[in-house]
Design goal:
Family: Belongs to the FAD-binding oxidoreductase/transferase type 4 family.
Subcellular location: Peroxisome
Keywords: FAD, Flavoprotein, Oxidoreductase, Peroxisome
Largest sheet: 7 strands, antiparallel
Distance between the termini: 32 Å
Shape: globular
Protein name: D-2-hydroxyglutarate dehydrogenase, mitochondrial
Bound molecules: flavin-adenine dinucleotide, D-malate, zinc ion
Main location: other
Strand order of the largest sheet: 15-12-14-13-17-18-16
Helix content: 25-40%
Structural class: alpha+beta
Length: 486
Amino acid sequence: MGTAEQHVALHWSTSEEGDRPFILEPISGQLNNYPSFFSSERPTRIIQHSDDLVCYNTDWLKSHKGTSSLALRPKTTEEVSEIVAYCSKNKLAVCPQGGNTGLVGGSIPIFDEIVVSMSLMNNILHFDDSTGILQCQSGCILENLENLVNDKGYTVPVDLGAKGSCQIGGNISTNAGGLRFVRYGSLHGNVIGLKVVLPSGEILDCMNTMRKNNTGYDLKHLFIGSEGTLGVVTEAAILCYPKNSETAVAFLGCNSFGDVLSCAKIVRQKLSGLLTSLEMLDNQAADTLRDNLKINVPISEHPFYVLIEISGSDSEYNEKKLNECLTLLMEKNHVNDGTIATELSRIKAVWSVRERITEALLQEGYGYKYDISLPLNDFYKVVEIMRERLDKRVTRCVAYGHLGDGNLHFNATTRTFDPEVLSLIEPFIYEYTSKRNGSISAEHGIGYKKTKYLHFNKTQTAINLMKSMKALMDPQGILNPYKVLP
Ligand code: FAD
Ligand code: MLT
Ligand code: ZN
């Protein structure tokens, strides 16, 4: 993942909002007799200098800023347990942080919570090349895991544009979707085991490595997607899949969103079993890439583009199936131009068009990011409605997303934060989504940004149960406070 140098004016400093129920002072005073394992490596494992804390306090979008004065970097589950037990005893709030690539403000402290950074917990524990089950610490970077299992003939079930920075523990805690969801499904299906430190500091060992295990409540699911509010994930067992040796990517141009939908239907039918990704972007997303990152789409200009990836073991068969599918799409006029890449460097170049939109948008100034799922018939209507509502108040309205999963990323940009623009988008977009039984957060999570909109997707009974579960597991509310729950 590249980094964007040009950044945005911060639209709020979180410390300005609400009361601050957790007090950090006790930890500074008691640091000398604080967890013994840190004493010899203090400079690299206890971060206290304000300059060094900036990155722990600031999110990837540079729109949220916390005021933590302490970040700790444990190396083992036992160390995490010791930290959390200490914080529990002293009523200190904790913010678990992975690669800090989250897009909803979940990974940064809101006030002065102690950041527990998982980045030194990056050991591979075991890989079983007959079952494909990988066991590792939660701070392993996703791309490193992919490279490791690739060498053994496997692939990890999740892939996203932030793969070079995000950690598997962050992926699990957000139940990240990403670019291969259409093939391998959710992490709820692919996480086989977890080890978690509970808010009391106790270690919950669910590091099962058996595919089948029906022994009552499957507790690991509580931590998948709960965004660090119920426990700190320290180890995981992930199901990896045999890597298909032959991959092809097609990048296609469509003249209307109706054509995009027809394209998606035919691709699903004709390429079933081979399809690994089915993505889309609109021309405004392509313009953003061109203007901000000098990346051009590999075909002539169209209102919409569809990216398809297939993978299998037989290149001749793949080619035949792909050609049949593309011929049909051209005959039916759903596609007007296209290119196919089969060589790794070209495949990567085509993928960068889709993967780097987020980074290109960051360069524009302030970004209003939405991650919704909608029935396909309503998928693009909301973008047209938003364009009309926002009109010249915004620099751009852009849409891209995981077409195969009905997951749309609608984004608007302005040079600096504009409250009027925000009020024209929210809560309208959430109401629109909810009325159509869509999800207000298809993959990024609720984090800090969306807590007050949770009711658009969850009934009061569901929210009450979530609150009861939180109260049961974290009665003092020390773990990632102000996140997920309203
Ligand atoms: P962080 O951002 O550090 O944390 C995210 C949340 O998880 C926070 O609430 C944090 O407290 C919690 N957390 C982190 N580690 C732990 C742990 N070990 N134990 C308990 N809680 C923990 N998301 C998608 O779903 N699909 C995409 O396609 C996608 N593409 C992206 C592309 C780009 C360029 C960027 C910048 C982001 C993208 N994201 C995407 C969002 C983000 O990358 C994912 O949410 C990712 O899973 C976060 O991982 P992380 O390690 O960076 O977690
Ligand atoms: C993506 O699919 O590119 C990500 O979820 C990030 C984003 O929404 O910008
Ligand atoms: Zn996405």
